Amino acid sequence: MLRVGLTGGIGSGKSTVADIFRVLGIPVFDADAATRQLMEADESLIASITKEFGEEAYSNKKLNRKYLASIVFNDVYRLEKLNAITHPAVINAAQVWMQQQKTAYVIKEAALMFESASAAGVDLVVGVFAPQHIRIKRVMDRDAVSRQDVLARIDKQIDEGIKMKLCDHILVNDEQQLLIPQVLHLHEKFIGQANK
Questions:
Q1: Which residues are registered as beta bridge partners of 68?
Q2: How far apart are CA 78 and CA 14, in angstroms?
Q3: What are 136-195's pLDDT values in tens digits?
Q4: For 180-194, how does the pLDDT look when each residue is reduced to its tens digit (9 = 90+)?
Q5: DSSP of 43-56, one letter per residue?
Q6: SS3 170
Q7: How far apart, in whole angstroms, are the C-alpha atoms of residue 170 and residue 182?
Q8: What is the C-alpha separation between 185 and 15, in angstroms, rounded?
């Protein structure tokens, strides 16, 4: 089975691309969703997060996302601490999930594919690229946040140009080029590679 990573900066359209792959019958592991689930279900993660960020990190056994975001998005060191706690658990969950799949290939969607060292667990990586001004507008509209908030999040990820250079394939989601034909092309390519 071919293991394909899917990444891109915030607002690039990774989730849209993942949804297209799902429609094609390809299983997708959503690392962000898995992280949220594990942060509320994995007792050792909960204990580590509480120890590092205090009792306020949880409220009624639910992760206090607003509180945690207010800390980690304003302090690179604290963000790195949170990532060091969560990334190993998510990487392990992805590996277990991949072993359970029966398709020619699978997709692991992760915004921090390279930052978290998740790329080591896949055979190749697809990057979703969108110009920064489009990404900013998408996130402002989607999350009802300010331009400064979006730029702060972008600053926490590696440079988009560097990220795309690290990818094996790039899908351009610039609202000029059609996205579905690009995904279909890769789908056929991955099916062919998996069947070799």
A1: none
A2: 26
A3: 999 999 989 899 988 988 887 888 899 999 999 999 999 999 999 999 999 999 999 988
A4: 999 999 999 999 998
A5: HHHHHHHHHHH-GG
A6: strand
A7: 9
A8: 18
Report which of 127, 123, 96, 99 is spatially closest to residue 196, judged by C-alpha positions.
123
Question: pLDDT for 35-81, tens place per residue?
Answer: 999 999 999 999 999 999 999 999 988 999 989 988 987 888 998 99
Is residue 9 within 8 Å of residue 154, measured between CB atoms? yes
| Distance separating alpha carbons of residues 37 and 44, to the nearest angstrom | 13
Phi, psi dihedrals of residue 151, rounded to the nearest 5° = -60, -35
**CA dist 3 → 17, 132, 138 (Å):** 16, 28, 29
pTM of the model: 0.89
Residue 95, amino acid: Q
